[in-house]
Amino acid sequence: MGADWNPGHQQPYSGNGLVGPTAAIAAVQTVFVAAKFYTRFIQRVKFGLDDYLILLALVASLACSMIFIVLAKIGVIGYHFDYVSEMPDKVILARKCTLALEILDYPFTITPAKLAVLLFYLRIFTTRKFQILVYIIGSLVLVLGVSVLLENFLQCRPFAYIWDRSIPGGTCIHPVDAYRIFAPVNVLTGVLILVIPIPAVWNLHVPKAQKLAVTGVFLLGGLGNVASISKMVINYAESDFARDDPTWFAAKYGVLTILEGSLIIIAACIISIWPLFTRIMPRRFRTTFARSTPRRSQHRSWYSRETPAKSESGDGITRPREIHLLREKDRNSSQSLPPSLADLEDQRWSILMDDEVYGSHQSVGVSHE
């Protein structure tokens, strides 16, 4: 509490509204990422670049959460700046931590998470035009991430002037001004990542209900963009407040900062952990998803998928091929061949599309003779 920090002053304090939500968001995204890696482990699928990018994004996001919580607990965030400014040590700490947050947020949380989603798109959609578009968006995301990183290190001259304003002759670009340049591009890339797979989904020759279901999965990734837009609107509307009272402003702005990156991370994990969800969900719910998820016996076949084949129907969707066990003793012992370059996200895509997408209602599993 604020009173515990300085009992001699009863000042307005809003830090408690930051601590609880930040801790909860950190816990939820950790569970999703852990479930993603656990699912890949039990499926014996080799980790890909997107997995490492998600792990990097999670570590950076958790570091941001920890900084926000510590600053709120020690009385830096949550009090008005005119009160905090009476303690120069805390002002210096606040400025150093603000720099750390700016470095961790977009360059090392949002950028890797968005790139992980785009890598997933590259595995699923194989049409050349679509992949070129993905590369363009990915390049824009990467360039923006590098630009934000460089801006953080070049915003003040000399560099130490970022936290020590007593240095004579120092100059700075205010972080609010820099954010107003980068924020629209961040929102644009988020919108593009959200909408580019939708036309491909609706060009599939499947029932509308299935198209809606798959579209819904992709739209989950738009939740992070909602936070991005909210941050941008608040920053534009309250820019003067953010300049004059940053320690109070950060208490409410910090939740959106953590939420933005976390939602993108969670969206990137949802498709990967679906097989795990279908195994642990209550039996009474399984019939609800019967037409869009495989039967229990089909899960075993995922352990014996080869490298996904390219689309032959021209719709740009990668389809996994079935392989069979080579020996009868392997079938009797329920052992499956380990996958070579099989990818769990591709398998999840086949679940969403259902057997009708492939023009067959046959079970995709181990053959039994």
UniProtKB/TrEMBL annotation:
Pfam families: Fung_rhodopsin
Location relative to the cell: Membrane
Positions with biased composition (Basic and acidic residues): 307-321
Transmembrane domains' residue ranges: 20-39, 51-81, 106-125, 132-150, 181-202, 214-234, 254-277
Chief site of localization: membrane
GO CC term (a single one): membrane
Alphabetically ordered keywords of this record: Membrane, Transmembrane, Transmembrane helix
InterPro entries attached to this UniProt entry: Rhodopsin_dom_fungi, SAT4-like
Residues covered by the Rhodopsin domain: 36-279
Chain spans, region Disordered: 297-321
Top-level division of the source organism's lineage: Eukaryota
Membrane topology reported for the UniProt record: Multi-pass membrane protein
Recorded family membership: Belongs to the SAT4 family.
Protein name per UniProt: Rhodopsin domain-containing protein
Organism encoding this protein: Penicillium desertorum
